[in-house]
Amino acid sequence: MPIPREHGAWAVFYGSALIPLLASLRPGWAPLLFLLAASGLFLAHEPLSRLLRTRRGTPASGKVPWWRLWLATYLLIGLLAGGLLLSLFQLWSLVLIGGLAAALFGLHLLRVRSKKERQVLGEVIGIAGLTATAPAAHIVSGNPFGGRALLIWGLCFLYFSSSIFYVKMRVSRFVKKEDPRRRTLHNVAYHGLLVIAVSLLWTRSLIGPLVALAYLPIVARAFWYLREPSTRLNLKVIGYSEIAFTVWFVLLATLGWG
Fold it and tell me: What letter does residue 59 receive in the DSSP assignment?
């Protein structure tokens, strides 16, 4: 099965969806159909990406029919579940969220085709698309589409985008292919703006203290490693720590959102 190999993509996609779903604790078929539909479309991104990367005449071109089969399977599951969700529960505002997410994934696939998906812009677009599950789950949980739906989308986007700048700073200091000072400046600037944004949301009572506290670990790690020696880099440790931070964020944001 062609499935996304990046653990971070799974964490962003399902972590963003779980916050509104767990906060509402609304059992029923709507959340299940939503997760099935979203999962089908999420999984479809991988075979489609492989098809876009594969050139004719290369060894990988022999797998094209197999990837097309899985692409069709994932899309069929996603569209059937999504169609049932819309017809049974009349959640038509999901169409708007789905359209925005589809546009973002389309832009990301264009970056994949030109092999620019690992650049900052490509990764930011990818995070924006993956975190679209947050406002969609907010609607599925029985809430109208509005400011709160956009707020949870923005909160998830702010949180998960931070890893882009943090990881690139760590990697640049080790591989020396890019100016580490520039990556460090980007990391500091992003997390400084994140602190300001979260503080403003808190002081204006748009989020509670638990939601604000959920950002503390990623801000701390972003500044803690500013003086890290350039000879140290363990991507597995970084990956596992990011997953742990995601669990922290989902738990506190769920408690604070509810």
Answer: G
Query: Measuring CA to CA, which residue among 147, 44, 139 is closest to residue 86?
Result: 139
Report yes or no: 133 and 38 within 8 Å, Cβ to Cβ: yes
> Around Cβ 152, how many Cβ atoms within 10 Å?
26
Are the beta carbons of 166 and 221 closer than 8 angstroms?
yes
The predicted model scores a pTM of 0.91
What does the DSSP assignment read for 151-215? Answer: HHHHHHHHHHHHHHHHHHHHHHHHH-SS-HHHHHHHHHHHHHHHHHHHHHHHHTTSS-HHHHHTT
Residue positions counted in the chain: 258
CA 205 – CA 106 distance, rounded (Å) = 35
Q: What is the pLDDT along the chain (258 residues), one digit of tens a residue?
A: 787 877 789 999 999 999 999 998 877 899 999 999 999 999 998 898 888 887 776 766 778 888 899 999 999 999 999 999 999 999 999 999 999 998 998 898 888 888 888 889 999 999 999 999 999 999 999 999 999 999 999 999 999 999 999 999 988 888 766 688 899 999 999 999 999 999 999 999 999 999 999 999 999 999 998 877 666 677 788 888 888 999 999 999 999 997
What's the CA gap between 29 and 33, in Å, rounded? 6
Query: Helices H, strands E: what count in the chain?
Result: 11, 0
The residues, any chain, with a CB within 8 Å of residue 21's CB and separated by 6 or more, are 31, 137, 140, 141
d(CA 43, CA 38): 9
